[in-house]
Amino acid sequence: MSLTDIIEIIIISVLIYYMLVWIKDTRAWMLLRGILVILAFVLLAVLFEMNTIVWIADKLFNVAMIAVVVIFQPEMRKALENLGRKNILVNLFNFDFNKVENGKFSDKTITELVKACYEMGKVKTGALIVVEDEIVLTEYERTGIAVDGILTSQLLINIFEKNTPLHDGAVIVRGDRVVSATCYLPLTDSLSLSKDLGTRHRAAVGISEVSDSLTIVVSEETGKVSIALDGELYRNVDAEFLKNKLAYIQKREQDTSKVKSWRRRLKDVTKIRKESNE
Ligand SMILES: Nc1ncnc2c1ncn2[C@@H]1O[C@H](COP(=O)(O)OP(=O)(O)OP(=O)(O)O)[C@@H](O)[C@H]1O
């Protein structure tokens, strides 16, 4: 056995491990159990030489593979997006062309967001605000009207004011700017979401399932503020909780851009050296 074989075994083991973890974390787990039942059935058919069943199973195999890809398209897409999001790829190939350098939002933006949400809650103005993280939401941004303005509580309150042209749909926030309003988001088909929640909350959970964004919902009915993050809905949160979650997203961005800031620091050092040489 050569060194290459050992490396190959390690790579395949790691890939199988990550695939099993992925299957366990998604709806694919149920599917895998279903497939195992069918495989056991086919195995029995082979053992007892039930040739017609074996022939049907053989013919259905290719169709089943295509069906799996179609059924799990959202999960596969998310898995690939997660792969592309990993620091190694992003930093090696600099794939995040759409991200502005130093694109994380400031503490001021957090304060303005929290202020706007609770002020809108007080007067029961409905709002849906998506705070983008690493995954760029261009395809959803395109469904709305471009705004590209610095985020302030006044701007958000103005956008969501009832009977104004921009109040319907979602606002997308990138860094310290509101990039787009009236955006249409994908709705979740989660059955675990409470029946008393309507499409605004479903849209918030929907976008959190397909991206790493944090979405804030202000209910028009109750004035309560909720957060959707990683497919979970945190209902009726207080200002402190919202602030902490936003700070967590802000820090997470800072963590992923460690290599960038390291590069920037390297550039600065080279610049200082050049200047001192001159
Ligand atoms: N797919 C979507 N993308 C973006 N915004 C949406 C989407 N679906 C609904 N909305 C927004 O939600 C509003 C309707 O909210 P609805 O009353 O159905 O939701 P809700 O979850 O009960 O919220 P609320 O508590 O505010 O009533 C729409 O007017 C629209 O602004």
UniProtKB/TrEMBL annotation:
Name this protein carries in UniProt: Diadenylate cyclase
Catalytic activity: 2 ATP = 3',3'-c-di-AMP + 2 diphosphate
GO biological process: cAMP biosynthetic process
Main function: Catalyzes the condensation of 2 ATP molecules into cyclic di-AMP (c-di-AMP), a second messenger used to regulate differing processes in different bacteria.
TM stretches of this protein: 6-23, 30-48
A Pfam family of this chain: CdaA_N
EC assignment: 2.7.7.85
InterPro entries (UniProt xref): C-di-AMP_synthase (IPR014046), CdaA (IPR034701), CdaA_N (IPR045585), DisA (IPR050338), DNA_integrity_DisA_N_sf (IPR036888), DNA_integrity_scan_DisA_N (IPR003390)
Keywords per UniProt: ATP-binding, Cell membrane, Membrane, Nucleotide-binding, Nucleotidyltransferase, Transferase, Transmembrane, Transmembrane helix
A GO term, aspect molecular function: adenylate cyclase activity
Organism: Roseburia inulinivorans
Originating gene: dacA
Top-level EC class as recorded in UniProt: transferase
Family, similarity comment: Belongs to the adenylate cyclase family. DacA/CdaA subfamily.
